[in-house]
Design brief:
0% helix, 50% strand, 205 residues, single chain, mainly beta, elongated, 6-stranded antiparallel β-sheet
């Protein structure tokens, strides 16, 4: 029996362990109420912000790499329709019919607080501490963090990755006096919740 069919050794990713034929039917829902507060008191400018993210993941996936009980993803099929099953036609990739559920909830708190103090008309100091998070969502699929039978998390901490940041600086403007100006600014950027520049110094014009 020929080992290839017109040069094809198998109608699958046989050289890569027949990996990664997958189907996704997923729904991720996220809610994120937040609050910010800024105060200017004399030489101080202080601000803080909170954001509470909570949501859920629902749906199902299918794939040969889910493990035992979810199908191999390989079948026999007469690709060229000649009535003869060749060796390559015994290695035809398909998405398994058995699906694995996805069913878990998550929540986390992001916050940021900072203070700006004007030492003199030309010198000021600034400090901020922040913590932010990012839901991992589909990054968890087909990995050990999801129970393939129940769809729940095997590790609750895997749902969210956190970033913590501490910042400080001294600003000196020898040419022009510095004026405190307040601006509320919050940005959710990747895994980091930043309120940088919520209190900042700008030269007087």
């Amino acid at each position: 029996m020929p080992v290839t069919q017109n040069g094809v050794t198998g109608y699958s990713a046989s050289f890569f362990g027949n990996c990664c034929r997958r189907s996704y039917d997923l729904d991720y829902t996220t809610y994120a109420p937040f609050a910010q507060l800024g105060l200017e008191i004399g030489r101080f400018n202080i601000d803080g912000s909170l954001r509470y993210d909570f949501g859920r993941a629902r749906g199902s996936v299918a794939g040969a790499d889910l493990g035992a009980g979810f199908g191999t993803g390989i079948t026999t099929f007469d690709i060229n329709g000649d009535g003869v099953i060749s060796a390559p036609e015994r290695q035809v990739a398909v998405i398994p019919n058995v699906r694995s559920p996805l069913n878990y909830n998550y929540d986390y708190l992001s916050y940021s607080g900072g203070a700006n103090y004007r030492l003199t008309d030309t010198t000021a100091v600034f400090a901020r501490y922040s913590r932010g998070g990012r839901a991992n969502a589909d990054r968890l699929l087909f990995g050990p963090s999801i129970n393939t039978r129940t769809g729940g998390l095997t590790d609750q901490g895997a749902a969210v990755d956190f970033v913590r940041q501490t910042r400080g600086r001294v600003q000196i403007s020898p040419e022009r006096p510095l004026a405190l100006r307040h601006r509320v600014l919050g940005a959710y950027r990747g895994a980091e919740f930043r309120g940088d520049d919520a209190a900042f110094l700008q030269p007087r014009i």
